[in-house]
């Protein structure tokens, strides 16, 4: 028994369309600053440390469209974080604002604060997503450490991973 012509055309169209669908991607980001520890398992945070701070990052521009930032104060004085001036600089060298999605506690001596910075979004499909592979980004966090202004700049390298 032969299948009806309509069924064959529908099957052929499905194969044609599914073969041409753009690929889906997710992103991994590595901290490129010297001394950074980049972890390889999904959901793990990359770490960067200096004498004043420990910085933990988890960057997800596709699913959650956010950056999880955990700052640990290693000094005996509070550290001021200018949350309204935090930004991400992309390959186009334009800084885009990122804001915590909730109120963030003050960064007291020898304590940590956690902020989910939104909105950081990159395309998840096709050539638009693939074009961000191996591209540099820079997270900019203005601080006041020991009474002096300081720009924390974390350099990142994007890796577009095809699903």
Give the CATH architecture: Sandwich
Mean pLDDT figure: 89
Number of domains: 1
Largest sheet: 6 strands, antiparallel
Count of alpha and pi helical runs = 2
Total beta strand runs: 11
In the predicted model, the low-confidence regions spanning at least 5 consecutive residues are 5-18
Shape annotation: elongated
Percent of residues in β-strands: 35-45%
- In percent, how helical is the residue content? 10-25%
Q: How many angstroms does the end-to-end distance come to? A: 39 Å
CATH class: Mainly Beta
Q: What's the CATH topology label?
A: Immunoglobulin-like
3D structure, described in words:
This protein is mainly beta and 163 residues long. It has a single domain (23-162), classed as Immunoglobulin-like (Sandwich). It is built from two helices and eleven strands, in the order αβββββββββαββ. It has helices at 5-20, 126-130; strands at 25-31, 46-49, 53-60, 66-73, 80-81, 87-89, 95-97, 99-100, 112-118, 136-145, 148-162. The strands form two sheets. Strands 1, 5, 6, 7, 10 and 11 form a six-stranded antiparallel β-sheet that branches. The longest helix has 16 residues, at 5-20. Residues 5-18 have low confidence and may be disordered.
Short structural description:
By secondary structure, the protein is mainly beta. It has 2 helices and 11 strands.
Keywords:
elongated, 2 helices, mainly beta, 11 strands, 42% strand, 163 residues, six-stranded antiparallel sheet
């Amino acid at each position: 028994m032969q299948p009806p012509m309509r069924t064959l055309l529908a099957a052929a169209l499905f194969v044609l369309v599914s073969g041409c669908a753009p690929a889906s991607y997710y992103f991994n980001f590595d901290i490129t600053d010297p001394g950074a520890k980049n972890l390889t398992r999904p959901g793990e945070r990359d770490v960067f440390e200096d004498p004043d701070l420990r910085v933990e990052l988890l960057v997800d521009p596709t699913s959650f469209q956010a950056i999880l930032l955990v700052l640990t104060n290693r000094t005996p004085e509070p550290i001021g974080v200018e949350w309204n001036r935090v930004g991400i600089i992309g390959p186009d060298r334009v800084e885009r604002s990122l804001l915590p999605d909730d109120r963030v506690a003050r960064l007291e001596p020898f304590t940590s604060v956690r902020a989910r910075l939104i909105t950081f979004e990159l395309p998840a499909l096709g050539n638009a997503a693939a074009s961000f592979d191996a591209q540099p980004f820079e997270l900019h966090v203005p601080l006041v450490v020991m009474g002096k202004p300081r720009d924390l700049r974390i350099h990142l390298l994007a890796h577009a991973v095809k699903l």
